[in-house]
Write a structure and sequence with these properties.
The chain contains seven helices and 17 strands.
């Protein structure tokens, strides 16, 4: 819905989105089975955020998105937060650039816990978030199990999960999927005046706020990873975005899309116990960036942590800093493939 403007040069002209046409296209795709039945949306709870200072995807675009979903959802199931003076980034209350800054790593400290508010809206009553060290571990898994030649199709070789301690002990847990934005994938590198060339690493995975709530509420958080690519015969993807405009697959908006199918395949690996047998400890590093200042971004935190290796199998953001999340109440997903688990 934002592919004709924004992301690379911004969007400043009046909105030209034909919502009724998009609804008609959606309904046609559902009728032919290319997407799931739109009636399923009626039981969903939708949470939208748009900062008042967003210069990349202005608020009128998100208002159009709200109107589009309003066709399928009751107003009581929808929430739209649009009064925070945030730029185009993921807002938190503990990490990132100043709220109104548009810059790497596209996470901003607005004294507003967006991840928490999103999860509370979706799930209702939750236990308070963990203010102490996280009660869980980070798992690095193989995405290549679900899509051949993943890099050629804009997906990184590996992805991440945060697994609460209770879920690792074979309890039944919820699953929440958090998609990073463009320029937020793990191997993205950029120049910081204070520190030189830095790598994004697991900054989005560790510093967006989801894990604090997940650890106290038995929610496994899945962080799929895109990667910059320029597939032969298709438009390039220089910023490591998810395929929301067809750079890899012209069917990007329906179930047969390569990236969509890969993520769905991972989600179907259910009714398995976590962790798998045969895990062996190994040493890894925390690659998230340290505290961020707009003109002085710290180098990665290389504190050592514990990892596990096993022979087993592993699993759309919009513009730089856009984020998209989805949650589902379901049993743990199996993670089968090569992976590392870190604290």
């Amino acid at each position: 819905m934002t592919t004709t403007c924004s992301c690379f040069v911004g969007c400043f002209a009046p909105s030209s989105i034909n919502i009724n046409e998009l609804i008609a296209i959606t309904d046609r795709n559902a009728a032919r089975g290319a997407i799931d039945d739109t009636a399923n949306l009626a039981r969903h709870r939708l949470w939208l955020f748009s900062g008042t200072r967003d210069t990349i995807a202005p608020q009128r675009l998100v208002a159009d998105l709200f109107a589009y979903y309003r066709h399928y959802l009751a107003a009581a199931n929808m929430a739209y937060k649009n009064d925070v003076a945030a730029e185009h980034a993921m807002p938190t209350d503990f990490f990132g650039n100043p709220c109104g800054i548009l810059d790497d790593p596209y996470i901003v400290n607005c004294s507003y816990d967006a991840a928490g508010q999103l999860l509370l809206w979706i799930h209702g009553n939750l236990n308070p978030r963990n203010a102490a060290p996280l009660g869980g571990a980070f798992v690095n898994f193989d995405q290549g199990e679900f899509i051949d030649h993943s890099i050629e199709h804009g997906m990184a070789p590996d992805g991440w999960l945060f697994v609460p301690a209770g879920c690792a002990n074979r309890q039944s847990c919820k699953l929440h999927v958090a998609f990073h934005g463009c320029k937020q994938y793990e191997t993205y590198r950029y120049f910081s005046p204070a520190s030189g060339l830095v790598t994004c690493g697991t900054t989005f995975v560790r510093n967006t706020g989801y894990n604090k709530w997940a650890g106290t509420n038995n929610i496994i958080v899945l962080y799929p990873q895109a990667i910059a690519s320029a597939p032969i015969g298709f438009a390039p993807n220089p910023y490591g975005c998810w395929d929301w405009w067809g750079f890899d697959d012209e069917n990007y908006a329906i179930k047969s899309d390569r990236q969509m199918a890969a993520r769905q395949s991972h989600g179907r690996q259910n009714s398995r116990q976590f962790p798998p047998a045969g895990m062996q400890p190994a040493a890894v590093t925390n690659t998230a960036l340290g505290p961020v200042a707009h003109d002085a971004i710290a180098r990665p935190n290389n504190a050592a942590s514990v990892a596990f290796n096993a022979s087993n199998r592993g699993f759309k953001a919009l513009c730089p800093g856009s984020f998209f999340s989805t949650s589902a109440v379901r049993r743990r997903r199996s993670i089968r493939g090569n992976y590392r688990e870190t604290t």
